Amino acid sequence: MKLHKMKQVDITANMTVTELLDSMKNGGFTCRKVALATDLFLDMIRDESCTTFLGLAGALIPGGMRKVLYKIIEKEMVDCIITTGANLSHDLLETSGGSHFHGNIELDDAKIKELDVSKIFDTFVSYESFVKFENLVQKILDNIPNEPMSTRQFIYEIGRYVTDPNSIVKLAHDKKIPIFAPSFADSMLGVQSWLFSQMKPLKIDVLKDHTEFSKIIYESKKMGAMILGGGVPKHFIMNGSQLHDGLSYAVQITMDRPEHGGVSGASIKEAVSWGKVASDAKWIDIMGDVTLVLPLIITGVLSRL
Amino acid sequence: MKLHKMKQVDITANMTVTELLDSMKNGGFTCRKVALATDLFLDMIRDESCTTFLGLAGALIPGGMRKVLYKIIEKEMVDCIITTGANLSHDLLETSGGSHFHGNIELDDAKIKELDVSKIFDTFVSYESFVKFENLVQKILDNIPNEPMSTRQFIYEIGRYVTDPNSIVKLAHDKKIPIFAPSFADSMLGVQSWLFSQMKPLKIDVLKDHTEFSKIIYESKKMGAMILGGGVPKHFIMNGSQLHDGLSYAVQITMDRPEHGGVSGASIKEAVSWGKVASDAKWIDIMGDVTLVLPLIITGVLSRL
Amino acid sequence: MKLHKMKQVDITANMTVTELLDSMKNGGFTCRKVALATDLFLDMIRDESCTTFLGLAGALIPGGMRKVLYKIIEKEMVDCIITTGANLSHDLLETSGGSHFHGNIELDDAKIKELDVSKIFDTFVSYESFVKFENLVQKILDNIPNEPMSTRQFIYEIGRYVTDPNSIVKLAHDKKIPIFAPSFADSMLGVQSWLFSQMKPLKIDVLKDHTEFSKIIYESKKMGAMILGGGVPKHFIMNGSQLHDGLSYAVQITMDRPEHGGVSGASIKEAVSWGKVASDAKWIDIMGDVTLVLPLIITGVLSRL
Amino acid sequence: MKLHKMKQVDITANMTVTELLDSMKNGGFTCRKVALATDLFLDMIRDESCTTFLGLAGALIPGGMRKVLYKIIEKEMVDCIITTGANLSHDLLETSGGSHFHGNIELDDAKIKELDVSKIFDTFVSYESFVKFENLVQKILDNIPNEPMSTRQFIYEIGRYVTDPNSIVKLAHDKKIPIFAPSFADSMLGVQSWLFSQMKPLKIDVLKDHTEFSKIIYESKKMGAMILGGGVPKHFIMNGSQLHDGLSYAVQITMDRPEHGGVSGASIKEAVSWGKVASDAKWIDIMGDVTLVLPLIITGVLSRL
């Protein structure tokens, strides 16, 4: 084994994020992983033969990540997005004029409910925002074709009718970056879609997602993935990469643990045994909250693109 | 505040699980929570006005929980199950003659792959088992109606053609306990369903799940839930309980953390602010692995039913 | 790699803890680890050439583990104990007539303080109990020799004057099982010892611990350890085992994570690189709360001894 | 409850760390906590009536934090340090000419040992470095007074003989910032001190730490603390603050969980019930790895001091 002497992380008063990341390569544990993941994500993006997938799970927009995700799409860092329905719902909630809030997190949850507000760890959403969201979604759904659609088509169609320039649903539509949401039915958007479908025709064919997703995979020379949070998006990407030669690049950011065997916390290394990740792949698992880790990585990437 | 003197947990050589649980009420932290959750789950089951939901996420059958889940269904402890597709897939894999295995967890993942085996933390599944699973599923799907189905109907139809007496899919069918799998598309069963649908008609309408699920909810006087692992099943149950007066009883067992805002690790208490859990509900959150906690609780329940 | 077909965990209404553990060997993840750790701890105890060390960190007695620890000592399962000062303090607090309590965990912490009570996650200690503890300790310290003592001698001397038959400090004294508490100074017992030493002579020589501990180690043919919670006790045992050929047996139970490099969450496997654990050692790491895992293991051991 | 609309975190290519932190205040969860903790630590430092304590636990220098800790001391951000012995040992190891290394973390631990190297998660230390460390420590100890010393005096005396300008032990000595290490006996430095004491007189009086520490506390108008990792340093600081009116400011950074009742993962809020933290204190708990969080906070502080 070759040993490389560590230099320790150095910091200065007005250093840039990129300078800090560079210095963090001299440390150990999580700081070094974040620095190396920045390089790895850059490698993924710059490899022209690599189709890059982004998996989105967890409360990303309540956590403040809307603009960071926007930059990822705007700069076309990724070629395809797989998300839970919640991320779409929270994007459209902002688009509808609704908001996420800071407030008093010590307030009792029963009292929070009485104020027509709901809590997400240390952030809040108001009932009023949900109503705006619902009105927007119902209005948009009225324009959407009534043929059976994959979730990809469905979200693309929604994006067509979003006018908010800050929406990631709209931006992905405009950039023609496909968004799949294979488990969207359990989200607020899913519930609204169902309510709509009670009155007017709307058909979502989740099996069609596989047809479209496998087409993207078969057209890929190599596959890479940035996996945030795990969940269905991770599982769906890995189902796909198993049809290919496995992911050639992977970054995973999650706070979930591996010991219970569930997919969200499973190590990237274990995915090698499934053929979901290539045995010669470059990968980094980061144990940390996406809201802290992702802005660091994407700022680092932005400054070098 | 009334203070109750703790007596400490006592143990004896040949004590039963139920005796240990009774003694654990005298302790603190996780042991006491598990003991109290046993009582709470019993309360839920015995409350005739309560419709009890079971949420299944994570690698439960690779973790050895197939017979424990079987007992829950056999004794009709729950009225409705919401699961990821993976739990259905692993049940049917065992049904097909395939197996989960113990093996050498130190072996390198690339070498494990070369042996046509895949790893799930410290257990294994063989490629051969997957082939058996696939053959079984394709054969079953051939019998299934080609009208658009909810995932509930789809799984019910599958259960009709399963002959293995140890299958939880079959048992739930025979017991007429509905199983919903709103995100089943990202599972092995989802992939097989898609492959089948390429050749023959098969239509899964995930929005229809809401129609059927909301009917069950509207017919419920009270709602209770045992939530294992979180994920889409937790979210789906909570979406439903929001249409009602919130859950009156809830037990949650997960290793996920609350700090990143995602739903799997979110506290039950926070769900009160959403109206997903009633403000006067009885609930217990347990931080632990389902494979250890669930058999303790269900053994305790069995001995008192 | 040899693959062994898993049989799944089975449960019955009135099964004993030992029967459940036997069945848990058929599962995966944490349930199987707990079952295997029971066997491993039995192997350690039964191996007459093995000196067995018990490391105690964390809030074990507030968590209800006093009688479980008592049984471990009573049955002479271990030969030497290394503990934080807190475990000694909470044992002596109970001995003094003080108590740990259950109460209303929803009460605001500022209000809890006003009631002269302190919270430990979901248990409580009263100010009144601390006063009893302090009085007891001051009375005992009055009898203790004023020569410089290792923490082992100091705790042994304290044990001499404890009359409570339920005290683990007393039982260890009577059984001549040495207890080391190398970091005892930061505990309530440490503070009381300091207060005493302000008025009367009392000298604790923590370096002398190494003299006595290394003697025990050099007299051991093999070493084994049951490590609860990590912390200084784990580190101290491992410092010692490094002077030997490393631990031949190790069970670790903790909820700490390995990713930050700290010793508490570090894997037993990593300790092999330090010579703290023998490369051919038998070991199991369990990610779980000691209050749930330890009573299961010790009940299993009791029934087979 | 007053609700404040969230603006979402924004990033730009060459932004500084301080700009990123400012933007992170607009997010939620961990990113916002880190940003707010930066402000809170600044408040603590700027409050002239506040004595600020720094608690150091975990593998900080193997994680690359030596220069970050150096800056904290150099800029006199803190008035008193409480540490585990490991942090002193790793500082002196670097001082002695020894090193921490990056290497191949996939190598088997038994093979790593054969190479005379030891692993700390994803970093390494060589046996050769330990030898250098031991030689340095033995040489220094030869100069040290043989009267009974608190750990504070002991470390101060060591600092007197360190010539390495990068050493935090030396810098703290020069800056007259006291360092306590109440559990130092279980560290490499503790073992070396013991070996030395076998041949020559050396007496460490851990009870004397309380005398000196309580003097610092009684001279403080207010107390504040930055607590890294938990462990004995956290407990020791909190023991002290209980003698005062509790901490007025607290930042805690750890990956430990609260559910097992141990002090490392316990919430700052719970400490209010103990009088360890004032009921009107300002505090933030961060769930994350110190190696990632601390450089961000300290860079933010440096740029504003």
Question: How does this model look, in words?
Answer:
Four copies of one chain form a homotetramer. Chain A is α/β, with parallel strands linked by helices and 305 residues long. Chain A has helices at residues 17-24, 29-46, 66-74, 85-95, 109-114, 127-141, 151-160, 168-174, 188-199, 206-218, 231-243, 268-273, 290-304, and strands at 4-5, 50-56, 80-83, 100-102, 117-120, 123-126, 179-180, 222-228, 247-254, 277-287. Chain A has a single domain (17-304), classed as Deoxyhypusine synthase (Deoxyhypusine Synthase). Helices cover 47% and strands 17% of the residues of chain A. In chain A, the strands form two sheets. A six-stranded parallel beta sheet of chain A has the order 7-3-2-8-9-10, with helices on both faces. In chain A, helix 6 packs across helix 9 (188-199). Chain A is globular and about 65 Å long. The model of chain A has no long low-confidence stretch (mean pLDDT 97). Chains in contact: A-B, A-C, A-D, B-C, B-D, C-D. Strand 1 (4-5) of chain A pairs antiparallel with strand 4 (100-102) of chain D.
